[in-house]
Structure formats: C-alpha cells, structure tokens
Amino acid sequence: MLSIIQHTLTDMNIISAITSTVFIILLGFYCRKKGIFSDKVGKILSKVVLTVALPALAFNSFMQDIDPEKLKQGMNVLIWGIIIYIILIFISKPFFLKYKGDKQDTLRVLTIFGSTTFFGTPIVSSIYGPMGVMFSSIFNIGYRIFLYSYGYIKMSGLKMELKNIKTMFLNPIVIATFAGLIIWLCQGYMPQMHIPAAEGIAAHNVAFLRIDQTAIWLFKPLTYLAGLASPLAWLSIGSTLGEISFKSAAADKTSWYYSFVKIICVPAINVVLLTILTATNILPVSYEALATIVIMMATPTATVAAAYAISFDKDALLASNASLISTVSAVVMTPVWIIILEVISKSGLFH
Fold first, then answer.
1. Which of 102, 162, 280, 290 is the residue whose CA sits 20 to 30 A from 131?
2. What CATH number is given to the structural domain containing 134?
3. In which domain, by residue range, is 189 found?
4. Residue 147 covered by a domain
C-alpha cells in the first residue's frame, strides 16, 4: 500500500494536474483580492467556459474510434448517471433528518447536484484526457435531466415549466454533447472519406464528420477553445472565492456538515456501489469511468442548484455559505480523491 501511495505521489502527470488546479485557483483568488480582477471577471470567465470552451471540449472528446469496449463503458456510465441520482434522492434524506422544511430541501438538492460541468470536467480533462471528458459528458446527461426537473420542482414547489425543458436541451454543452455522441455512435454508418497514409499511419477510411481527421482546419480552433476550459474555469473559481467573506461562512456549522456529506460521503458511496457492481459484473466500469464519476461527484454546490435556493427564497444564506465552504473543501479534497483513486487502480479490480 505504501509503495502504491509513494508511486502515485511521484507520478508527475498526477502531481502536475493537482498543482495546476490549485495554483491557478490561487492565482484567480490573488488577482481578485488585489483588484486585478473586478467583481465581474468571475462571472464573465464562467460564461466563456460554459458557452464556448466546455462545449468545444465535450464535442472534441467524441472524436475518437469506437469499439465494443468503449461503447459498453459509455452505456454503463450513462445508466449509472441516471441510477445514482435516483439513489441520491432517497439517501440524501437520512443525512439531513434533523433539519426541517426549506432547510432540509435546500441541503438535499445541494447535495444531489454538484458542479460536475464547471468544476469536475476541467479536472477530469487535465488528468484523464479525451476519454475522461467523453465519460463525463455522457454521465452529465442524467445529471441535467434531474437538475432541471427534480431539482427545479423540489425547490420551486411548482410543476415543470417549458422554459426549463428548453434550458435542458438548448444548452450549448448539451447540444455539443449530443452532436458528438451521435457522431461517435454512428460513425460506422456514415459516408466515409479516404484518409491517405501519413507518417506512422496507414491509409484508412473514416466517417466524414470525424473532423479530427477530415477537417483539421475546423478541429484545430475547437481544440484551442477546448484548451481554455480548465484554466479559465479555475481562474473563475479563484476569483469568486476572492470576493466572498470566508469568515462569516466558516461560522456556519451546517455548511461544514453539508460539505462533509457532499465532498466525502457522496463520492465514497459511488466508490462502494461501483466496486460492488463491477465485482459482480452487474454494471462493470473501467478505472477511467470510475475515476471520472468519483471526481464529478466530489464537486461543490452546483451554480444552478444554489440559484434555485436564492430565486425561490429557500434559505438563500445557507446556500451561499454552503457553496463557498464546499468549494474550498473540494479544492482541498480533490487531490486526496485523485490519490485514493490511483491506489484503487492498483488493486486490479478496475481495468
């Protein structure tokens, strides 16, 4: 065990991914505290990430060959991405039984829905590359369905509205995900283009929509845009942390308890259940799929979930405090989860 941990802690790919995340978040924090970033920078950066960089990252991740194992893993991630939210809807209640009314509703919704897209995907991208991003994009299909249906209904007390359905399906990231997913799944049935032999690569045919090979002139700018996702997201997180009073939020014990549940218990539940499902071959997942899911679930409060609490006056102060404390906790715990996942990878259960 010690040798595995030592190997993990000396793996430069893992260490550099962790330090990149932490250092750039700290840079955003510093720039906000020093006034280099205005109070609007965090929101502007997050808009760029959500409307431009992450859609490009999601789409590009599907520009790869399909094989039976990848297809199986993708489908298993999709199934788990739906099942886990149903499980969390039920098991979130026991964690917050001592809280009543709006406070319990808010804590449960904030626990179920983390910042998987904005916080999780950039980290997954930096560690597990296109395969991790593809798994995260597929996993987020279930997340968005429940966030804009159950999350909205629970917090508003209203029935599902048309505008939420539009938000669910007309979101740039969702459009890019489904476009990429369709190309990935159907590439064998599309008109094929001949790709001449190149250095180290034999001549072959690919689907005409595989722009990574058929339209490099289009794929390259998308690659540059995708590369912005991680650094801009981390700068935005740091900038946002820099404008909130940590002292007042830290005095709220409920926020600390919530963060413990969200950042430690929820990912741990995923590890345990997925280990059982893989060992029994009921819903086996690869190591990359497991790691992606755990990192996605070890994320702080989702912006949309916090916005619901503020919009519908469901203990807005608690939501704000919980968002800050969980973000700080996630920054601290993400490196720990990455190390735990690397130790799990050496167990031989996940391949």
1. 280
2. 1.20.1530
3. 2-343
4. yes
Most confident residue range from 81-95, 166-180, 295-309, 330-344: 81-95
Domain total of the chain: 1
Closest CA relative to residue 47, chosen from 229, 177, 224: 229
Q: For residue 222, how many C-alpha atoms fall within 13 Å in the half-sphere facing its CB?
A: 19
> What is this structure's pTM?
0.91
State the DSSP H helix or E strand holding residue 194, giving kind and residue range, or none if neither. Answer: strand 192-195
Nearest CA to 137 among 165, 103, 179, 197? 179
pLDDT digits (tens, 9 = 90+) for 280-330: 999 999 999 999 999 999 999 998 898 888 888 888 888 888 999 999 999
Contact 23, 179 (CB under 8 A): no
Q: H/E element holding 207?
A: strand 204-207
Whether residue 327 is contained in a domain is answered as yes
For residue 351, being part of any structural domain is answered with no
Three-state SS for 37? coil
Assess contact for 342 and 8: CB atoms under 8 A: yes
State the chain's mean pLDDT as an integer: 90
Residue 279: half-sphere exposure toward Cβ, Cα within 13 Å: 9
Per-residue pLDDT at 225: 96
Q: What is the 3-state secondary structure (H, E, C) of 308-347?
A: HHHHCCCCHHHHHHHHHHHHHHHHHHHHHHHHHHHHHHCC
Please check whether residue 199 lies inside any domain of the structure.
yes
Name the residue among 310, 334, 332 with its Cα closest to residue 321. Answer: 310
* DSSP annotation of 195: E
On the question of pLDDT at 161 being above 80, the answer is: no
